[in-house]
């Protein structure tokens, strides 16, 4: 069965997509820790981060860096934190979380962001991501 992320990639489920290449996609987390919380995902469905090939891991890291650059420009924060837990969805994903304090990045913390604000964030972040 396809993961929820594969279903977003295939457009079977909606997503607030901020960036996409032929091998990667980035979209806002619908259960964010803070506004702008973004997930970077390889399109190839792999469950465990360290099962990616060396080339895939490098490409994902470079894609994530580009998305983080745009995210930092678009959202008021001191830094972009990142994390890989891998237990929530069986599909590799890197969390990019705008932070100004250590308490901004905490797995299990979820805030409500209205759909209109999510769309606004998507548009602002997408516009700030530098081209590949």
Commentary on this structure:
The protein has a single domain, classed as 2-Layer Sandwich (HIT family, subunit A). It is 31% helix and 19% strand. The chain is built from three helices and five strands, in the order αβββαββα. It has a five-stranded antiparallel beta sheet with strand order 1-2-3-5-4. The longest helix has 21 residues, at 54-74. It starts with a helix and ends with a helix. The model has no long low-confidence stretch (mean pLDDT 96).
Which tags fit this structure?
132 residues; alpha+beta; HIT family, subunit A; five-stranded antiparallel beta sheet; 19% strand
Low-confidence stretches: none
What is Rg? 14 Å
Order of helices and strands: HEEEHEEH
| CATH homologous group name | HIT-like
Residue-averaged pLDDT: 96
Count the strands? Answer: 5
Q: What is the count of DSSP helices, taking H or I runs of 4+ residues?
A: 3
Distance between the termini: 32 Å
Shape: globular
Task: Please identify, by name, the CATH architecture.
Answer: 2-Layer Sandwich
SSE-based structural type: alpha+beta
What's the main sheet like? 5 strands, antiparallel
What is the total number of structural domains? 1
How much β-strand is present in the residues?
Answer: 15-25%
What CATH calls the topology is: HIT family, subunit A
The level of helicity is 25-40%
Identify the CATH class: Alpha Beta
In which order are the strands of the major sheet placed? Answer: 1-2-3-5-4
SSE topology sketch:
Layout: H1 4-9, E1 17-20, E2 24-28, E3 38-42, H2 54-74, E4 79-83, E5 94-99, H3 115-128
Antiparallel strand pairs: 1-2, 2-3, 3-5, 4-5
Helix pairs in contact: 2-3
């Amino acid at each position: 069965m396809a993961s929820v992320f594969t279903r977003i990639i295939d457009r079977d489920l909606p997503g607030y997509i901020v960036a996409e290449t032929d091998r990667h996609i980035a979209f806002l987390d619908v259960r964010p820790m803070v506004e702008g919380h973004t997930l970077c995902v390889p399109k190839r469905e792999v469950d465990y981060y360290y099962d990616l090939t060396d080339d895939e891991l490098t490409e994902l890291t470079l894609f994530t860096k580009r998305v983080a650059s745009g995210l930092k420009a678009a959202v008021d924060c001191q830094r972009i934190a990142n994390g890989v837990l891998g237990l929530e969805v069986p599909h590799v994903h890197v969390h990019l979380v705008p932070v100004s304090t250590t308490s901004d990045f905490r797995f299990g913390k979820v805030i409500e962001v209205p759909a209109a604000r999510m769309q606004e964030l998507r548009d602002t972040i997408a516009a700030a991501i530098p081209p590949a």
